[in-house]
Amino acid sequence: MKQVKDIMTTELITVHPETELTQAAQLLLEKHINGMPVVDAGGRLVGIFCQSDLIVQQKKLSIPSFFTFLDGFIPLTSMKQMEREIEKVSATTVGQVMTPDPVTVRSDAPIEDVASLMLEKRYHTIPVVDDGRLTGIIGKEDMLRVIVSK
Predict the structure, then answer these.
(1) Helices (H), the chain
(2) Which letter does DSSP use for residue 93 in this model?
(3) Which of 14, 19, 23, 149 is the least crowded, having the fewest Cβ atoms under 10 Å away?
(4) Paired residues of 74 in beta bridges
(5) CA 138/CA 41 separation, integer angstroms
(6) Where does the pLDDT of residue 76 fall: very low under 50, low under 70, confident under 90, or very high at 90 and above?
(7) 134 strand-pairing partners
(8) Measured distance CA(110)–CA(5) in Å, rounded
């Protein structure tokens, strides 16, 4: 049974939370990748940045629904959720749009588990972390190579 370490990418391309979105987008395009780990100054994983984080900037903001009760307005959606959406649409740095504390896998995880995780949760890129250290990344393209090599 193949494990993550057998197919993961170990030559990591990472960005920092302070990286400008335009620079990060250029990296995604130049390297033909879907996402990158976001690391702090010490090299610790703090998030994941993907193409979808950029696409959200083109999204229309949804106007929250309210209902009135005793002359007061009560929002039907979380104000915190709306604030996060506004922050993402107006973001200029990776840290403002990344997914913090991403789901990770260990290098000894079976690739079948990763395939299930990708399909069920719709993840395209998953960081590989062993003993608290970022050791690789696994994406859908890595999974496709397994299928092609059979």
Answers:
(1) 4-7, 21-31, 51-55, 79-89, 94-97, 111-121, 140-149
(2) B
(3) 149
(4) 67
(5) 22
(6) low
(7) 129
(8) 9
Residue type, 77: T
pLDDT in tens, 22-54: 999 999 999 999 999 999 999 999 999 999 888
Domains of the chain: 4-149 (3.10.580.10)
Length of the chain in residues, anyone? 150
Q: Mean pLDDT score of the chain, rounded to an integer? A: 85
pLDDT band, residue 82 (cuts 50/70/90): low
**What are 4's two structure tokens?**
């993550």
In angstroms, the CA 130 to CA 121 distance is 22
Between the alpha carbon of residue 108 and those of residues 72, 93, 111, 132, the distances in Å are 55, 33, 9, 14
CA distance 51 to 58: 12
Closest to 64 measured CA to CA, from 82, 47, 52: 82
Alpha carbon dihedral 135, 141, 146, 150, in 10-degree steps, equals -160
Q: What percent of the chain has pLDDT over 70?
A: 76
On the question of pLDDT at 105 being above 60, the answer is: yes
